[in-house]
Amino acid sequence: MKIVIYGLGIIGASLAAALKDAGHVVLGKNRSRGPIEYALAHQMIDGEAVSYEGADAVFVALPPDATMKELDEGDFPEGCIVCDICGVKEAVEQAVYSRPRKYRYVGTHPMAGKETSGILSASRDLYKGKNLVITRAAGTDESALERVRALGRDAGFSRIVECSAREHDEKIALTSQLAHIVSNAYGKSPLALDVKGFTGGSFQDMTRVGGVDETLWTDLYFYDREPLFNELSSLIARLEEYRDALSSNDKEKMRALLKEGRLAHDKFFSEK
Fold it and tell me: Whole-model pTM?
């Protein structure tokens, strides 16, 4: 297939390299020149896309607002498969289906990344063994969806999950967005600047994704505001139970809370 990737950051460039390695013809498009030159030099793409002409598939790997603008204004060939890679889906889907399109839209969200961003962090094997979420709507073209599933396998994803945009956003509020908020808030402790020599794996795990791009993640949070608000409120209520156990010097309550959490943890990893 001839594939255009618009947006050569860590996600887009990694996808481009993986699909090129799988034998597809991959062209890159970017808002600045540097990533194009880097991708060409490192054989992540076959060339630069000056238009979408002749493309069988396009992946738009831009922030949410820029993605929706491109999905609305991009000159995609008729029948072309067009995918976004945004971390929110309902807002994008609503924008796409707000009027008839000549392209075939399929929403995707690669469940992979790093705590760093940009093309210098891209990796040809970023998606190997990872999960890919594909969203299905009433207007989804089945043949396009199957082609995207095949491209996902070509990129190295080991598990491909289909769901509605709403289900995606509700679950991502917990598995991604809330985790980034917790990590970001955890690192604000006044003690955090004076713990060198006192940290181990648990501290690193808790702070790894705390250095978020505040512009991008604010947009993601507010496009998914209701599900994220609900998950954050639920977490705060659960944390208050631990705090109350300490406040009341109630060891039995703390032991019960920890056991409940351990059992939930064990159940998750046993069914993973």
Answer: 0.92
